[in-house]
Amino acid sequence: VLTFRSMRQRLAAVGLVCVIVASVVTGAQSPSAAPTKSSIKNPVTVRGKYLSLVVGSNATTVAPGAQVTLLVEVTPRPRMHLYAPGQAGYIPVNLSVAENPAFTTKAPVYPASTPYTFAPTAEAVKVYAGQFMIRADLVVASSAALKSRAAKGDTLSVAGAFEYQACDDAVCYRPEKLPVEWKLGLTGKKE
User: Fold this and answer.
1) Phi, psi (deg, nearest 5) at residue 145
2) Nearest one of 30, 93, 43, 90 to 70, comparing CA atoms
3) Is the per-residue pLDDT at 14 higher than 90?
4) Are 180 and 162 in contact (CB under 8 A)?
5) Which of 11, 92, 117, 119 has its CA 20 to 30 A from that of 41?
6) What is residue 54's three-state secondary structure?
């Protein structure tokens, strides 16, 4: 006989295993492959209902014509998981950057997901159950207008959004879309 209490204990154990696996996977990455919070320049914390984000970049300044990497460190609340891109049937995490003639961005790069099996239905899904980092390369245009702004030490604002749906071992919550913004100092010198 499977009681509510024993089922809840089993689900909690499955969640704990996913968190442990995610921690091991995240810890196994080399420092160059996964920036740490301390390596995020100009960090800004954005808080959602079920997670927190640290938004920043790999450099504090960027010159026209140069590339910079936008970074988003995602930390779900305990016992929460988020669905990875490519997971059918659920709303996966999605980082978008607003188009702007001042720059071009490449598609975001997401880390490998962790497999998660929902015990009552035996459904296997791809999730993030612990802290992870998303990267997106941005190349600043080398227009005369941007060179002029760089000579004045102006700031380049990059707007975006982070969308996700968080779930725990019992329920999935309403999707949330968080506005994010990166501020990059413009400089005439390429780093």
Assistant:
1) -65, -40
2) 43
3) no
4) yes
5) 92
6) strand
- Residues 113 and 84: beta-carbon distance below 8 Å: yes
Q: Is the distance from CB of 160 to CB of 97 less than 8 angstroms?
A: yes
pLDDT at residue 106 in the model: 97
Position 36 scores a pLDDT of 55
**Residue 141 CB contacts under 8 Å (≥ 6 apart), including other chains:** 64, 65, 101, 102, 103, 104
pLDDT of residue 118: 77
Q: Which residues pair with 75 in a beta bridge?
A: 52
Alpha helices, H only, the chain:
4-27, 144-151
- 11 φ, ψ to 5°? -65, -40
Q: Is residue 64 within 8 Å of 189, Cβ to Cβ?
A: no
CA-nearest of 58, 63, 87, 62 to 73 is 58
* Whole-number Cα distances in Å, 80 to 24, 32, 152: 17, 27, 45
pLDDT one-digit tens code per residue, 163-180: 999 998 888 899 999 999
